[in-house]
Amino acid sequence: MSADYLDGNALAGPFAEIFAADVTVAVGRCASCGLTGPVAGLRVYAQAPGLVARCPGCEEVVLRLVRGPDAAWLDLRGTISLRIPLPGAGA
Amino acid sequence: MGIISRGFQGRRRGDDERLPPGQYLTEDFPVLSAGPTPRVPLDRWEFTIDTEGGQVHRWNWQELRALPSETPTVDIHCVTTWSKLDTRWQGVSLDVLFEDVETAAEYALVHSYGGYTTNLPLEDLLDGKAWIAYRYDGEELEPRHGGPARLLVPHLYFWKSAKWVRGIRLLNEDWPGFWETAGYHDYGDPWREQRYEGD
Amino acid sequence: MARLTWRPARLVKVREETASARTLVFDVPGWPGHLPGQHVDVRLTADDGYTARRSYSLAGPDGVELTVQRVDDGEVSPYLTEVMRPGDELEVRGPVGGWFVWRPANPAPVLLVAGGAGVVPLMAMLRARRASRSATPFRLVYSVRSPEQLYYADELAAPDPGVDVSVVYTRTAPDGEARPAGRLTAADLGPSGEADCYVCGPTGFVEAAAGLLLELGHDPARVRTERFGPTGE
């Protein structure tokens, strides 16, 4: 009955439209239960008016992304922080 | 518009006057969900109306089912652009549930099992415009479609018709719900195509 | 790396994989290349403006090649598998997804676990291994309902030194198959030493297979998964 979600890999396209770095490889911490893991490992509910990514540990909402015709809304309040790997400074 | 793919049809627009702008007809009943489907045992189910003054009105499952019900046949319009015509429901009109509720509040925040919320003006829940629905198309409402009971407020986009409804909080000020805090419209009239904030 | 936009893609070639799945090869001007395991978002627009969007894994190491399974009540896959002809166009956005990827420079042994159509991004990894002449040991365990459902059957049957392929039939096994038909078990996945594990398939399959890998002692940090579900159509 829980076959209704994807994983965070499904966020790659929608995020690539907004950010230059690949957010799915970022490691985040759930604001609700403290679990850390890659954005790619979140549970993504995509059959909805927007994308809802939930923590695989506690199922609370970690982030939400809505794409309108001329804007996107991003809600990260369920995330304490994201560590986004980047090329070395000055490289 | 992007590049047109020859021969791709998807859903049809049709020319039905009952189809609001930007909507497409569907025959099936797509299941939309922002999270796992809550399982609510009927013996623990309840529905509440909390007034701005702190009064709580409460119904358990037997009490809800004992109330007089109606069987509306309505068109529903999802903001993701599908519309489904002539859907048949059974449920209790919000007018019945609000009969003994003393309130001067203008806004309602609907909340659900599983944590979902949505906001709308209280007047949009009254005067025969909204129901707590527990049967669909002659069957008990399935959990994936919001069972045991969901709000049905078909004159607004369907995200306002909260699945797994648990209660209504009455407020003096509009308090945006789950999708309304993420870009969706506070009111959501499909005929004025109020999809996103600012539409 | 810049933000991505939609690019036109023209269908140039089609290969039938099974009675209900086919591979579509697209020409996408300016395609920047990709890593095996990455996917693309596909957008279809009807002449009345209706649009539908889906994600598909890239099946090959180069260019835009997708293998699509027809879902009978779907809205996009019947078009891609039955209606679209060479010369027709759609739009793609990608490549995207940097998590579920294999990098040919990584020398660690690899265990690929596929459920049904989940074999597609794993096939891209196998093909990239071959294209890069990598000697990294690969093992593919491919769970499929019946022989008729097998994608890339000839290619997987051809000898590929350093690659071990085993097919697990869950409903109907072919004649002469020693293993009786049945769902994937720990025995199908083991014994295996340390490996980078990639699991792809429907959500239920991925949960089960990832659970078996952990039971066998694989490091959770080295088990990467990709589920496809409602929008994977």
TrEMBL record, chain A:
Q: What is this protein called?
A: Uncharacterized protein
Which Pfam families is this protein grouped with?
DUF6510
What species was this sequence derived from?
Nonomuraea pusilla
UniProtKB/TrEMBL annotation, chain B:
Oxidoreductase molybdopterin-binding domain: which residues?
Answer: 35-179
Q: SUPFAM superfamilies, alphabetically?
A: Oxidoreductase molybdopterin-binding domain
Q: Which Pfam families does the record associate with it?
A: Oxidored_molyb
Q: Which Gene3D superfamilies match?
A: Oxidoreductase, molybdopterin-binding domain
Name the coiled-coil region(s): none
Q: Where is this region: Disordered?
A: 1-21
> Protein name, please?
Oxidoreductase molybdopterin binding domain-containing protein
This protein's species is: Nonomuraea pusilla
UniProtKB/TrEMBL annotation, chain C:
The UniProt record lists the keyword Signal:
no
**Which cofactors is this protein said to need?**
FAD
| GO molecular function, a single term | oxidoreductase activity
Q: Which InterPro entries match?
A: Cbr1-like_FAD-bd_dom, FAD-bd_FR_type, FNR_nucleotide-bd, MRET, OxRdtase_FAD/NAD-bd, Riboflavin_synthase-like_b-brl
The UniProt record lists the keyword Cell division: no
Q: Which UniProt keywords apply?
A: 2Fe-2S, Iron, Iron-sulfur, Metal-binding
Pfam families, sorted: FAD_binding_6 (PF00970), NAD_binding_1 (PF00175)
Sections of the chain in a coiled coil: none
Positions of the FAD-binding FR-type domain? 4-102
* PROSITE patterns, per database record: FAD_FR
Query: What is the protein's name according to its record?
Result: Ferredoxin-NADP reductase
